[in-house]
Write a structure and sequence with these properties.
Organism: Saccharopolyspora shandongensis
Radius of gyration: 21 Å
InterPro entries: T7SS_assoc (IPR047659)
CATH architecture of the largest domain: 3-Layer(aba) Sandwich
Distance between the termini: 50 Å
Structural class: alpha+beta
Protein name: SseB protein N-terminal domain-containing protein
CATH topology of the largest domain: Trna Endonuclease, Chain: A, domain 1
Order of helices and strands: EHEEHHEEEEHEEH
Helix content: 25-40%
Number of helices: 5
Low-confidence stretches: none
CATH class of the largest domain: Alpha Beta
Length: 201
């Protein structure tokens, strides 16, 4: 038995990526076709097969796992292009879609929100944009990932706002929060309720 050369080396930080399901399905199909080709090939029994990773636009985002096993917050890929209009762009968007379909409750949503970061729409002066929600309630416009921004007319964005920082903004302006305006799972949450949940121990 041989010992791998990297045995004994200190552990390193690693990224764990979330890939668009459509690309995963295509990759699996290509792999099956490759296996079938090898079975009928007259070439050597063992061949090196080059495995290509997903294109950048198929990477939804990822989590940084540090050497001690700590998992960081999800970081959305700004270059991600959803394969379908309703494809979730991040864990919060996926959870919002489950909530809208009645498959989870608000406790499950807030558990995800507390560990996430958000993008807040800004006006030309750098102030958060406050606009009426579909039910006519003044709300802060927030996207859960860069792929959600295109539906909002904003001059700029404040990126990677934590849940606590978002709570502070909601309390400062005394408004609610509207996640992913115009999206397939756009949801308004009452500002005071958001603050209560994300600041609870």
């Amino acid at each position: 038995m041989t010992t791998p050369e990297n045995d004994g080396r200190p552990a390193e930080d690693q990224w764990v990526f979330l890939i668009d399901p459509a690309w995963q399905a295509q990759f699996a199909e290509n792999a099956r076709e490759g296996d079938a080709t090898e079975e009928v090939s007259d070439g050597p029994a063992e061949q090196e097969v080059e495995v290509q990773g997903p294109p950048l636009e198929a990477v939804v985002g990822g989590w940084l796992v540090t050497a001690d096993g700590t998992v960081g917050r999800f970081r959305a890929n700004p270059d991600y292009v959803p394969s379908q209009p309703g494809s979730p762009t991040d864990p919060v968007d996926a959870t919002l879609q489950l909530l809208v379909r009645g498959e989870i409750d608000s406790d499950a949503l807030f558990a995800v929100l507390k560990e996430s970061v958000f993008d807040v729409a800004l006006d030309a002066a750098g102030r958060p944009i406050i606009a009426p929600s579909p039910d006519d309630v003044p709300s802060l416009l927030v996207s859960t990932a860069p792929a959600q921004r295109h539906r909002v007319h904003a001059d700029d964005w404040r990126a990677e706002v934590t849940a606590v920082e978002l709570s502070d903004l909601l309390q400062e302006y005394q408004v609610d929060v509207l996640f992913n305006p115009g999206g397939p799972a756009s949801v308004r949450l009452v500002g005071d309720m958001f603050t209560e949940y994300v600041t609870a121990e």
